[in-house]
Design a protein that fits this description.
- The N terminus is likely disordered.
- Among the domains are: 63 residues, no CATH class; 73 residues, no CATH class.
- Strands 1-2-3 form a 3-stranded antiparallel beta sheet.
- It contains 9 helices and 3 strands.
- By secondary structure, the chain is mainly alpha-helical.
- Helix 5 packs across helix 7.
- The radius of gyration is 40 Å and the shape is rod-shaped.
- Strand 2 and strand 3 form a beta hairpin.
Length: 200
């Protein structure tokens, strides 16, 4: 191979996401490419299907931008998405705190790289970072205080309500006094008293 061929550094497949492998003698092997991200070797015979699969499987956010669709007609990728707004981020942090508190998850779960990757895909924000442990603890404390306040207000409003037994007794007394039963009972007492008096 000529000196010119040795000195050339052709751009590898998929816009340089892969590089042609360099032989020990300095020549370029165009049948073997190396991933520029993880340095893994791949056989290359003009088709880029397996290379795209590798990027999508191992390097998600890079692979999304190498779909090969004509510029201008290509869908927006994760790396092109705008960051979450402050209000949306706050709502998401609140939901994460509620999930941790309700399901008794450990606070350090927010440091799990797997959770971070899931949230990046779910939010379509490649740069999203889960809240820190301190933020989650603060959120949980705020939720606890708010819940306690609600319960205290409910108890305060129920403090002046009559008990069920008292309400039932009052209802029975009112019903008896309005039913004429009291008069019948009084007459029965007079009759019984009359016969007792005669026996004496």
């Amino acid at each position: 191979m000529s000196e010119m061929e040795k000195s050339e550094e052709p751009v590898g497949p998929l816009d340089g996401q892969f590089e042609y492998k360099t032989n020990k003698d300095g020549t370029i092997n165009k049948h073997v490419v190396v991933c520029s991200h993880c340095k893994k070797d791949f056989s290359f015979h003009r088709s880029t299907s397996s290379l795209k699969y590798h990027l999508n499987a191992k390097h998600t956010f890079v692979g999304a931008s190498t779909s090969g669709v004509t510029p201008g007609m290509r869908q927006t990728t994760l790396t092109e998405r705008r960051a979450l707004s402050k209000s949306t981020s706050e709502k998401l942090n609140d939901k994460i705190a509620r999930w941790i508190a309700k399901d008794c998850r450990p606070i350090n779960i927010v440091e799990d790289t797997g959770l971070a990757e899931v949230l990046k895909v779910a939010t379509l924000d490649a740069f999203y970072k889960p809240p820190s442990r301190g933020t989650v603890m603060t959120k949980i404390n705020e939720l606890y205080v708010a819940k306690m306040k609600t319960k205290e207000e409910d108890l305060a409003s129920a403090e002046h309500m009559p008990c069920i037994a008292h309400m039932l007794q009052r209802s029975i007394n009112v019903s008896l006094s309005d039913s004429g039963f009291t008069n019948v009972l009084a007459k029965c007492r007079k009759i019984v008293g009359h016969f007792r008096h005669r026996k004496c």
